[in-house]
Specification:
Elements (H helix, E strand, L loop, with lengths): L2 H15 L6 E8 L5 E8 L2 E8 L2 E8 L2 E7 H7 L5 H5 L7 H22 L1 H23 L2
Antiparallel strand pairs: 1-2, 2-3, 3-4, 4-5
Helix pairs in contact: 2-5, 4-5
């Protein structure tokens, strides 16, 4: 079995176990030479889910179908959607377990899709970008203390 297939099957199983069974694979890339780094993009309705493995840690980000090249870190989406409090992000020392993040996404995905459909993608993007700026400012404040 190729590394690409192993990674995509592992992530597909994690996504299914989180309750996101409608996810379709868009792309999968594996860099077998560098720590098993990999990236896969899945379609969840009008939302794109990107999973990245970098040196053994998994990271999650989301994009909207109309602008598939602009991915937002899941933490910024979660803060913008009020799935988690900003302080939970600012105090983390390492990424959360993939199963935890995907579980929260599964619980809130319908709300995100509804926000985009109702208020518009621009509104959703502005909310997420505001959360991004808050996270960046919190990190800068932490560094200058």
């Amino acid at each position: 079995m190729t590394e690409t297939r192993v990674v995509s099957e592992e992530w597909k199983e994690a996504i299914r176990n989180a309750g996101l069974s409608e996810a379709d694979i868009v792309t999968v890339e594996v860099d077998g030479q560098h720590f098993g780094n990999a990236q896969a993009v899945f379609r969840l309705g009008s939302v794109l889910l990107k999973l990245e493995r970098d040196r053994g840690q998994d990271f999650v980000s989301l994009a909207f179908e109309s602008m598939p090249d602009i991915f937002y870190p899941i933490e910024d989406v979660e803060v913008a959607m009020r799935w988690i409090e900003p302080g939970e992000v600012y105090t983390r020392k390492s990424p959360e377990e993939l199963t935890v993040v995907l579980g929260r996404l599964a619980e809130g995905l319908a709300d995100l899709i509804e926000l985009v459909a109702g208020q518009g993608e621009g509104f959703a993007r502005a909310r997420i970008e505001r959360a991004t700026l808050q996270r960046q400012q919190a990190w800068m404040d932490r560094l200058t203390r």
